[in-house]
Design goal:
By secondary structure, the protein is an all-alpha fold. It is built from 16 helices and no strands. It starts with a helix and ends in a 6-residue tail after the last helix. The C terminus is likely disordered.
């Protein structure tokens, strides 16, 4: 199936899709471990030391690719979100603020992980991320659409889209932008994106859905019938490479812009 059909089928009964993913043996095992051990995590140090809790939480908030950057993650969690100048609040990537808001040791101390709502929200986010991973093995475009649906509403500026390679790729594909734009000046990229869409519209379910439909249609045009079932390495996905230097530049920018 192409990205459009795969996405429609999954979201038509999304609760059923999530329930199916939650019952997967690996997902079930990791969720059980998280639920059984999260109450023992009383500090940022505890969080960083338990590799399974650490990996589970980062996957839940879409940060698995940054698991190696323990210094960055530690600083994000240590500073919390109460101070407007904290790292989580000044990074353009909304995933860090979501993580720091959930595990707000800076504000809540040892009681941070005793909240039933925290356990439920993290488990829910993890299952969604696991669903996206599974779908990506079948159709990368559908995975990107699901991820965009989940994460895009949390973005505060065009820089937030630029900081996340999947979000950026969805926008580039939807509007027919070349992946080579990633080599341009960051402010110029943000201005281009701001001229094409209003960031506030990403919080509107109807407008968000229209953008996703636009993306999947163009993705399927770029990846005709047969590509969806081919190995991902053979697919011509329009995901640009973002250098570490660019990511760090984005990280150091203040929130704002288009």
């Amino acid at each position: 199936m192409n990205a459009t059909l795969t996405y429609v089928m999954l979201t038509r009964d999304f609760d059923k899709s999530l329930a199916s993913t939650a019952s997967d043996p690996v997902v079930k095992r990791e969720s059980a471990y998280f639920e059984a051990h999260i109450g023992k995590i009383k500090s940022v140090d505890d969080f960083m030391k338990d590799q399974r809790i650490y990996a589970y939480a980062l996957k839940a908030y879409g940060l698995s690719d940054m698991a190696y950057a323990k210094g960055l993650i530690r600083k994000v969690l240590t500073q919390g979100v109460s101070d407007g100048k904290s790292l989580a609040n000044t990074l353009n990537d909304s995933r860090y603020k979501a993580l720091a808001s959930a595990f707000d040791f800076a504000a809540n101390g040892v009681s941070t992980t005793s909240s039933a709502s925290l356990v439920a929200s993290v488990k829910s986010a993890y299952v969604e991320a696991a669903l996206e991973t599974r779908v990506g093995g079948e159709n990368e475009g559908a995975r990107m659409a699901l991820y965009f649906k989940r994460v895009a509403p949390t973005v505060a500026s065009a820089y937030g889209l630029l900081a996340d390679k999947t979000l950026l790729s969805v926008v580039q594909t939807a509007f027919g932008l070349s992946a080579s734009m990633s080599s341009q000046d960051i402010d110029r990229q943000a201005k281009t994106i701001g001229s094409l869409l209003k960031i506030g519209d990403l919080k509107d379910p109807a407008k968000l859905q229209k953008l996703i439909e636009r993306f999947t249609a163009r993705y399927d045009m770029n990846n005709p019938t047969g590509a969806a079932t081919a190995p991902l390495s053979a697919m011509q996905v329009t995901t640009p490479e973002i250098s570490q230097s660019l990511l760090m530049s984005l990280a150091n920018l203040k929130l704002g812009g288009a």
